[in-house]
């Protein structure tokens, strides 16, 4: 499960820039420039860390993920469980990148875990332009077009059950709170299976370097997003 997107070296996981970028584009549909292998501020997608946590520790009915730092390419990271059950992703020096608090029943069924991971990642990868552009336009702000920076802060969900469902995620509500040069975006979603509600969740993003909304600048950014998407899909065909 997702084994093509990392290398296991002893007790550490190493993710190359190429693997991270391929996951972002091919699995998450995420064309954020920060995940391009040649990006100056490159980082591994948080959604890949999320997927690997589920792969290694299973899917719990309640889970809260908090991202504390961005993982660079080829950084050895260790996925571990503390005595109190909290999960941690840290590097060799002990620097933390992700903390996960979980409770309730757990399933390790590969089909269920992978279905949920892929379902969430596909939803999460639509941050921009699908969810963020309307929010920024509504509030008259946008990220710096020369250095767009959207940081994955946290996410959490609660499931009513873990067996026999093929999950689908739907955005229920979105909001943007502006604080000077940064803003917090919240995306609330429902989790369904065959038309039946099976859970809820929310995701928080931090948008930095805010400036006044410019429709022409935003149109150019969106156009570049779809150009990159088309180029990737053509190359992968």
Describe this structure in words.
There is one protein chain. The chain has 237 residues and is of the alpha+beta class. The chain has five helices and twelve strands. The strands form three sheets. Strands 4-5-6-3-8-11-10-9 form an eight-stranded antiparallel sheet. Strands 1-2 form a two-stranded antiparallel sheet. It has a two-stranded antiparallel sheet with strand order 7-12. Helix 2 (46-57) runs antiparallel to helix 3 (110-124) and helix 4 (127-139) runs antiparallel to helix 5. The longest helix has 22 residues, at 215-236. The protein is globular and about 50 Å long. It starts with 6 loop residues before the first strand and ends with a helix. Pfam families: DUF3581.
Key phrases:
237 residues; two-stranded antiparallel sheet; alpha+beta; globular; DUF3581 domain-containing protein; 8-stranded antiparallel β-sheet; DUF3581
Provide a short characterization of the protein structure:
A hairpin with a 2-residue loop joins strand 10 (182-193) and strand 11 (196-208). The strands form three sheets. An eight-stranded antiparallel beta sheet has the order 4-5-6-3-8-11-10-9. It has a two-stranded antiparallel sheet with strand order 1-2. A two-stranded antiparallel ribbon has the order 7-12.
């Amino acid at each position: 499960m997702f084994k093509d997107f990392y290398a296991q070296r002893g007790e550490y996981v190493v993710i190359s820039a190429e693997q991270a970028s391929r996951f972002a584009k091919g699995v998450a549909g995420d064309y954020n420039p920060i995940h391009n292998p040649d990006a100056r501020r490159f980082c591994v997608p948080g959604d890949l860390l999320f997927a690997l946590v589920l792969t290694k520790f299973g899917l719990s009915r309640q889970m809260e993920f908090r991202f504390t730092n961005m993982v660079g390419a080829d950084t050895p990271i260790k996925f571990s469980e503390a005595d109190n059950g909290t999960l941690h992703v840290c590097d060799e020096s002990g620097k933390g990148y992700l903390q996960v608090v979980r409770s309730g029943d757990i399933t390790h069924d590969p089909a269920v875990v992978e279905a949920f991971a892929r379902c969430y990642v596909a939803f999460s990868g639509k941050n921009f332009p699908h969810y963020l552009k309307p929010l920024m336009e509504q509030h008259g702000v946008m990220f710096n077009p020369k250095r767009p920076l959207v940081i994955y802060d946290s996410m959490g969900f609660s499931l009513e059950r873990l067996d026999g469902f093929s999950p689908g995620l739907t955005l229920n509500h979105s909001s943007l709170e502006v604080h000077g040069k940064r803003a917090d975006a919240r995306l609330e979603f429902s989790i369904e299976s065959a038309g039946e509600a099976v859970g809820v969740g929310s995701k928080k993003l931090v948008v930095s370097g805010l400036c006044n909304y410019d429709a022409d600048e935003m149109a150019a950014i969106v156009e570049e997003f779809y150009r990159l998407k088309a180029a990737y899909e053509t190359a992968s065909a």
